[in-house]
Amino acid sequence: MLALMEPGADLIAFVARVFACSPATAEAVARRAANRVYAARAVVLRQGDPCSDTWLVMAGRAQALVCGVDGQLALVQEYEDGDLFGAITALDSGPQAADVVAVETLRAALFLSGDFLELIEAHSAVGLAVSRLLLRQLRSATGRMVERMTLTAAGRTRAELLRMAVDEGGRRVIRPVPVWSSLAVRIQTTRETVSREISKMERRGQIRREGGAIVLVSPRAIEADVI
């Protein structure tokens, strides 16, 4: 039995933002959720286990990971603020396709599968928002698959840095400096390859380390080398 608590104003506001719904609908959704917190590196779901529940990420980050035949971890999907994972993302209640691991402290709203489907049926705004979320995840997964098929490991490293960078006063910045092994998992290559390409870009003056961040000095030059 899932222990539910009276939803707080922060959860209701979060649901209203993610699902773009009215406060009344947001409260109805929030009432069916249970708060869950997972420590960094905790396994939320294991590959092959039955899965019938749905998680809505409220804070932190999680990754769906599989182990290839070569023993190397590969990123299937990444989940951040507002993303869904679990049964609803697979559209069934079959076995879990990948491990879902908390990258950092993860806070999520947990819904029983039947509850979440009832919410979708009862509230059109929720159903529309879920459709948009799943389409976004599909585009992301498809884009990564295409990159693995068409780009070299060096090109994928550069593409990922461009994707991670955010604008800070007109500069493209990655903060904090990513862990090379974690970056390697994201693009399905080795830590050594990532380290080598980062060093090469530093020597060329395309990036530089600044405090606890990486500044993309020449984003266009980096983009030109995405091959």
Structure description:
With 227 residues, the chain is α+β, with helices and mostly antiparallel strands. The protein has 9 helices and 12 strands. The protein has helices at 9-19, 23-30, 87-90, 113-122, 124-150, 153-164, 180-187, 191-203, 219-224, and strands spanning 34-38, 43-45, 54-59, 62-67, 73-79, 84-86, 99-102, 106-111, 166-168, 171-174, 207-210, 213-216. The strands form 3 sheets. A 4-stranded antiparallel β-sheet has the order 1-8-3-6. The longest helix is centred in the middle third of the chain and has 27 residues, at 124-150. It starts with 8 loop residues before the first helix and ends with a helix. The mean pLDDT is 90.
Care to count the β-strands?
12
Low-confidence stretches: none
Strand content: 15-25%
The largest β sheet comes out as: 4 strands, antiparallel
Structural classification: alpha+beta
Give the CA-CA distance, first to last residue. 51 Å
**What share of residues is helical?**
40-55%
